[in-house]
Amino acid sequence: MKNKSVKVVLATVSTAVLLAGCGGLGKMVKNANQITYEVTPKPLEMHGDSVAVVIKGTYPAKFFNKKAQLSVTPVLTYAGGETEYKVANYKGEKSEAEGTVVNFDNGGAFNYTAKVPYHPEMRVSELKLKATASIKSKSKEFPVTKLADGVIATPALVMNDDKPSIGADKFTETVPRIAEAKIQFVIQQSSVRGGETSKPDVKALSEFMKKGQQKGYIFNNVEVSAYASPDGEERLNAGLSERRADETAKFLNNELKRMKVEAAKRGDLIKKTSTPEDWDGFRALVEKSDIKDKDLILRVLSMYQDPMQREQEIKNMAATYTVLADKILPELRRSKIRINAEEKSRSKEHITRLANSTPDSLSIEEILYAATLTDDLDNKLKIYQASERIYGNDWRTTNNIGYVYILQNKLGDAKTQFEKAGRASENNPVIKNNLGVVAHLQGDRAKAAELYREASTADKNAMYNLGIIGIKTGNYSAAVTNMAGHNTFNAALANTLAGNNDAAAKALEASADKDTAIGNYLRAVIAARAGNANLVSS
User: Fold this and answer.
1) Per residue in 20-74, pLDDT tens?
2) Is 501 part of any domain?
3) Which residue stretches of the chain have pLDDT < 70?
4) Does residue 160 form part of some domain?
5) What is the largest CA-CA distance in the chain?
6) Are 277 and 237 in contact (CB under 8 A)?
7) Does residue 37 lie in a domain region?
8) pLDDT confidence of residue 4
9) Residue 318 burial by CB count (10 A; 0-12/13-18/19+): exposed, middle or buried?
10) Does residue 303 sit in helix, strand or coil?
11) Are 332 and 391 members of one domain?
12) Which end of the chain has fewer CB atoms < 10 Å from its terminal CB, N or C?
């Protein structure tokens, strides 16, 4: 009888403990609505491929059972599924479970931070909180609580408009044509001697004039620079050098007229300059000579600035001066002639015809230029392929084939071309940028970013492309910097995300997407962020 009484007492105590435990959990569940929550941002936002959340809150006093553990799981729910954030555990003061301790008498604050990968389905979603309270093997679910809406995914609007780079041609509408000659004079004389006009370089001037007239050269000017050697009185040398310029100009003018060059009728065609004492020319010739005392001569030139003193000091070196008089000074008694002309390049129409019929007749610059004159990608590719066949040693031909392949979305073929071009021109920023474009479009963002960074110091397209990476990784200020000067949808988006609403609106209005559906959507987003309700509704 006694043993039976003991058993009854023990059973009663056990039941009481059990009920107390369940009752404690029940009380927590009942008072769950007393817990406060503050969610940031609200609604949730996508940044850099992730949706981050910060939840701050407070457990009230007398709420947290001393032996209980509370497991909290924020969850993003959306049509067709849900994504859980990491679990956070809290516990009472006497609980042996894992978790952050919450005081029973005073309650306590909590601060939760986590993120999950973004998926497009999350655009329309809700952030909810699931919680389970437990004491040892017993547990109770808290009512599911909605904390916020989600997800604003403005960064997901970014376009993959990576800019490939072309190996640019150096074609110009005119080609510089230059002819030069020199006429020597006898000491203290200014007349142009027959022996000088029959020298090969002077005769070549006449041929240049004749050829230029036949080919329609544009004669810009003729430069005549006349000199006197520094071995005479400066006043006399000044007049002498001017007369040498005049005589040379007279000879040239006669030749231009003889060759029937139309530009000869212009009074400003010939530009004359004169140098009375050519100390610079003197120094240059001495430096190149094998004169025994040339270092001493050069030292005199550096020590004395007065022309008369220079001349006297050099004359004091009698033997040396004789050598100078025989070898150096005669070369300084001269006039230099330079004809500056331009030859018109072939017309666009002519180049286009040749590119499609006889590309071998075009220069490298002409054939690369020809490819830029057509918008037809197949024709552009054909011309670049011809350029590679003819000028395969020029990396631009190979690179530009890859450029077209990117535009045709043939990424594998493009990569092959760029790698081939890279072997011909190592560390070329244009090629590195293009390999970055391929990597990005093939999904390798990290490799693309690496290549863009390597190319960005010398290739402006790589800078822009880095901006796209910046948007995708949530580095909006860097994206704005890298896209500076570009008026594209992405540049507008970067400014929007960085909070530069005015700059965003200007970039969007100047972009090609300003009147598209996505452009109108971004305009509404910009207006909303700027607090312009009228523009949002329109």
Assistant:
1) 444 489 999 999 999 999 999 999 999 988 999 999 999 999 999 999 999 999 9
2) no
3) 1-23, 318-319, 533-538
4) no
5) 153
6) yes
7) yes
8) 40
9) exposed
10) helix
11) no
12) N
Residue 429's Cβ-side half-sphere holds a number of Cα atoms within 13 Å equal to 14
CATH code of residue 205: 3.30.1330.60
Q: What local confidence, expressed as pLDDT, does residue 16 receive?
A: 37
What total of structural domains would you count in the chain? 3
The sign of the dihedral angle between the CA atoms of 241, 247, 251, 254 is positive
Question: What is the identity of the amino acid at 201?
Answer: D
Say what the alpha-carbon torsion angle 474, 477, 479, 480 is, to the nearest 10 degrees. Answer: 140
Q: Are residues 313 and 424 in the same domain?
A: no
Measured CA distances, 335 to 126, 177, 202, 223 (Å): 88, 20, 12, 10
Q: If you ran DSSP here, which 8-state letter would residue 488 be given?
A: S
Amino acid 253: pLDDT: 94
**Do 102 and 63 sit in the same domain of this protein?**
yes
Cα dist from 119 to 45, 77, 152, 258, whole Å: 12, 12, 12, 81
- What lies within 8 Å, CB to CB, of 95 at 6+ separation is 66, 67, 68, 69, 135
pLDDT for residue 299? 82
Listed residue (238, 269, 255) closest to 183, CA to CA: 255
Phi, psi of 460 (to 5 degrees): -65, -30
Q: What is the pLDDT of residues 172-187, one digit of tens each?
A: 999 999 999 999 999 9
Radius of gyration of the chain (CA): 43
Listed in sequence order, the residues at least 6 apart from 279 whose beta carbon sits closer than 8 Å to its beta carbon are 230, 301, 307, 310
The string of DSSP codes covering 416-464 is HHHHHHHHHSTT-HHHHHHHHHHHHHTT-HHHHHHHHHHHTTT-HHHHH
Structure token digits, residue 500: 């530069």
208 and 316 inside one domain = yes
Strand 125-135 relative to strand 138-141: parallel, antiparallel, unpaired?
A: antiparallel
The CATH number that applies at residue 352 is 1.25.40.10
Q: What is the pLDDT of residue 533?
A: 59
Chain mean position to CA 186: 59
Q: Give one DSSP letter per residue of 25-70, joined into a string.
A: HHHHHHTGGG-EEEEESSS-BEETTEEEEEEEEEEPTT-S-TT-EE
